[in-house]
Amino acid sequence: MLAYQGNAGRWFDPLRQIRLMQQDMNRLMDSLRAPAPPEFPLINIWTGPDGAVITAEIPGVSPDDLEITVHQNTVTLRGQRVAEPVGEGDILHRRERVAGAFARSLVLPFRVDGDKAAAMFRNGLLRLDLPRPEADRPRKITVSRS
Amino acid sequence: MADQETNGSVAAETTRDVPVFVPPTDIIETESSLLMVLDVPGADPDSLDVTLDKRVLRIAARSASSHPEGCTLQHAEYRDGNYERSFVISEPVDAAKIEAVFKDGVLRLTLPKATPAPAAKIPVKAA
């Protein structure tokens, strides 16, 4: 809300009104910031009966350059995407693809069995299977009549 | 009047109910060719369609579903959909020698420039 707190003078002063309005506008504009760059890679999280599946869009990254670590309930995805090289004398018309190092960490609501976790990379899509340890899985309890 | 003005600039819809994305592209021009690199993650290699009609290069691809079986989606940052983008190529290009390579979700197109015909010199006779 715009509040003219300084407008308590005895006389109506149009210049002061303008100055106050300017202050308010400056305050409004100051709070505007450029939007944050989108995350890379984009991730979808799925859950199934055995645990979670994470799929991520990582085009142009060799599977050898991907580093995936699982520690208890935290999954970290690291890698690097190299920018398209531009030689001397070449003209760069467009550069829209993001490049550089990236890292994302996800904390899952359950522990992950690191030995059984599997990753598959196909057509630029990464699929991470993160099963829960057998001991941690929910158990069905049958109710017996007394 | 308004209808006539917007005619041709309104994007056509697809018959399938899936979103159509514009793939981010790098374009680098070297001395002999034009290199285009497009990000099309999840695209089905069989569905890739690259056509050059006169000066318009059109790239289209369909992405296969990334839905793991028996799972429910909890958090989504991307969606499955189709890719489509068109470019107007200002350079004369040798259409027969265009190379397209698809690897790891990235499509690389190399468009060799057409060799220009040597300029013909026309002698001017003084009358």
UniProtKB/TrEMBL annotation, chain B:
A Pfam family this chain is assigned to: HSP20
CDD domains reported for this sequence: ACD_sHsps-like
SUPFAM superfamilies reported in the protein's UniProt record: HSP20-like chaperones
Domain SHSP: start-end pairs: 16-127
Family affiliation: Belongs to the small heat shock protein (HSP20) family.
Protein name: Hsp20/alpha crystallin family protein
Lineage: Bacteria, Pseudomonadati, Pseudomonadota, Alphaproteobacteria, Hyphomicrobiales
